[in-house]
Amino acid sequence: MTDSSAAASLLSTIAALREALGSDAVRTGDAIGERSMTDWTHHAPARPAALLLPRTTEDVSRALAICNEAHQPVVPQGGMTGLAAGAVARATDIAMALDRLAGVEEIDRAAATLTVRAGTTLQAAQEAAEAAGFELALDLGARGSCQIGGNLATNAGGNRVIQSGTAREQVLGLEVVLASGAVLSSMNKMVKNNTGYDLKQLFIGSEGTLGIITRAVLRLQPRRAARHTALVALESYDAVVSLLRRLSARVGNDIGAFEIMWPDFFDFGVALTAGGRSPFATAHPLYALVEHTSFDAADDGERFATLLGEALEDGAVRDAVIAQTVADARALWAIRECTAEFPARLDPINFDVSLPIGDIGHFVDHCRAELDRRWPGNRSYFFGHIGDSNLHVTVDGHSVPGVSHHDVYAFVYAMLAPYGGSVSAEHGIGLLKREFLAVSRSSEELAAMVAIKRALDPNGILNPGKVI
Amino acid sequence: MTDSSAAASLLSTIAALREALGSDAVRTGDAIGERSMTDWTHHAPARPAALLLPRTTEDVSRALAICNEAHQPVVPQGGMTGLAAGAVARATDIAMALDRLAGVEEIDRAAATLTVRAGTTLQAAQEAAEAAGFELALDLGARGSCQIGGNLATNAGGNRVIQSGTAREQVLGLEVVLASGAVLSSMNKMVKNNTGYDLKQLFIGSEGTLGIITRAVLRLQPRRAARHTALVALESYDAVVSLLRRLSARVGNDIGAFEIMWPDFFDFGVALTAGGRSPFATAHPLYALVEHTSFDAADDGERFATLLGEALEDGAVRDAVIAQTVADARALWAIRECTAEFPARLDPINFDVSLPIGDIGHFVDHCRAELDRRWPGNRSYFFGHIGDSNLHVTVDGHSVPGVSHHDVYAFVYAMLAPYGGSVSAEHGIGLLKREFLAVSRSSEELAAMVAIKRALDPNGILNPGKVI
């Protein structure tokens, strides 16, 4: 197609979309705000050719059928809080925001399920669950802006994975519109349902490349009414793993968080959030922020204190500080959450990798040594959700002047391959990591992904250029 | 193809397989034992044209490449304990048993994972996990015979789903051989890995129609060292749901079983296993067998007793018997497990359906009334894993003389549709329920399944005639 015939085709597609969805559901030009132009990565911002704002699943279906017929790329957009540029559209793409397809449809107390539309913010869904006496076991920093559709399309991780799994584990049913406009409604409420292929699994985590999620049935959990937090100092990474297994063996998934901080990160966090005053009198090789939860609101933390006391007595941990008040707990969490300050203080080059839990300590040592050898004087911070096998590394671009982010990515990802590690634990591939997907996936796996993509989206209209 | 050219093609395929795998790995005729001819349903027994016994993933790959080239159907077989005839081969199929591809390869204590070959029995995998101080949270009656590959291919449910989910939830990594012979090795050990499509999910529960599972990485749980069992009498199905939610809110997934028995079933179980002496002095509308587990071996059941005592005091339950000894607990479980006697005592027409938890009581009332109306004098037994939304119904064929099993299936499944229920909670579709799949799946879902099947197995050689 020539440029001018492509432009004519795009215009006629937009006209057909206005006809089908109504003019107020199709925006173009300046009527498309900044928010639709990029995500939290600020990567490759562009104003899409049009922004669709469907109100119903039928709108989504009609719109996709029109775009599929015209071979017109469509980029689904949620809260635009992604960290892999997975929802960033090009100037020739049509974006589809799910904002108007929002709201909690039902809470089924007997089944312990929440039925929700894709454009609902995570926080609104959480609040509805809590009002009904339950808890939605999915939580992340972007909760006020991110949307359920995006959470599921990216298989979001976040704060509670160690206890309740990723977004995938919360899904019982899903409604998805395929590229053809066909509505795949599998709004199952049952825990068990072995009737053919579990189709919903394909769409969860596929970043909008196989279908657009419109509704979901999510599992609700009983409320964990009490939470107690401790900061623990450890001798070595082996001691970290031993503590994780020891706590798990004693209280299972009453462990609600197990966040590890290496000293560079910890010291940075203490400097930023506690005026440099560490909760400990001396420095330690490693730090763990551990949370214990209980369904019993009257739990006074005695059991958790006893467990940590025993670990201290037999030398499994070097020191421990248990938060006595909510303010204490917040101060401890603030150290871990100093990452919110990274964009203001650093030029963050972020990694979100995963490795087998036992290998993470070696990888950190290896990675730090190699970074120091390659770029002496670099400032790098290591931390992560170790109970979930997820390590974050942030290299400060200011400390490696003249080096591109891409070069740092390539350098670190190359180190990951021998460990069988993953280039994305939770943020996804999007545009940013597509080049590095082959570090973690074999050619046979990539070929199978392409075969599935072709089977479900033969014209390749859904989020082209993302993931594969 | 004419019959004679088909026979010639089959013979040359078998010759090529002998060449590739060695003669001792390819059996034909009488060398194929009874076990390879049908599963626990005894449905459509047939001696397959050949039985392959691969020793390695490479053997599986070579064999499938040969069969794919020849368009030769292949039926994967595990322990042959299935309940849907999903592994039953026809006389013109080649069966592939994974028996020799067996053994636990590794237990990674830091990652809490078990790496296992598909032909390993569930019990062998459980024992390996226990020897390492962990627990494999998958358990079913067939544990001594069923194999991990079959458990995953059918997404097995079983005894611990309420606590730890189905087989799917235990899988972190999977190795699968596709119809082409391509080896899809995704032997991931990480809790989080968002690098493209989660391919393993497609093969779990697809009953060998998309690929043959050869190895898996399974998640291990800490050991639940104490178990306490109670039999509870309840006023109504609403009281059942209230008790489930009440216990869940107080102790989360420390509830290890929540099995409901309607009076017909309970009385039958008591007659068979306890000489007719019910643990209760009077009859009740419903019975629940409830198990409470703890990671703490020293848990003396006090907490569970307190919870049940409170429920008794405020009228939430009518009566409760708590097992004081292991023998007591076994006696209570024996009532629920009287199903083992069904084949000897009845002509069982079995249903394994699921419905939203809140609807199960209505469905049972409705179903019983309709059965009585249609076939007065029928004997039907209702029971199930209600915490998992799974209801079992067994109609005794002897009580509906002259009525085919098929007619009873069709009658009950037709009642299920308005509830959004599933024709298979855990046993799968196989051959037996293929005709009824459309009760639970829409035409769009079936079309998507067919598209995926074609994409991954274009010649349709893998377990043809099963599921879709």
Automatic annotation (TrEMBL), chains A, B:
Keywords: FAD, Flavoprotein, Oxidoreductase. Residues 44-223 form the FAD-binding PCMH-type domain. InterPro entries: FAD-bd_oxidored_4_C (IPR004113), FAD-bd_PCMH (IPR016166), FAD-bd_PCMH-like_sf (IPR036318), FAD-bd_PCMH_sub1 (IPR016167), FAD-bd_PCMH_sub2 (IPR016169), FAD-linked_Oxase-like_C (IPR016164), FAD-oxidored/transferase_4 (IPR051264), Oxid_FAD_bind_N (IPR006094). Its cofactor is FAD. Pfam families: FAD-oxidase_C, FAD_binding_4. It comes from the Bacteria. Gene3D superfamilies: 3.30.465.10, 3.30.70.2190, 3.30.70.2740, Uridine Diphospho-n-acetylenolpyruvylglucosamine Reductase, domain 2 (3.30.43.10), Vanillyl-alcohol Oxidase, Chain A, domain 4 (1.10.45.10). Belongs to the FAD-binding oxidoreductase/transferase type 4 family. This is FAD-binding oxidoreductase. It comes from Paraburkholderia kururiensis.
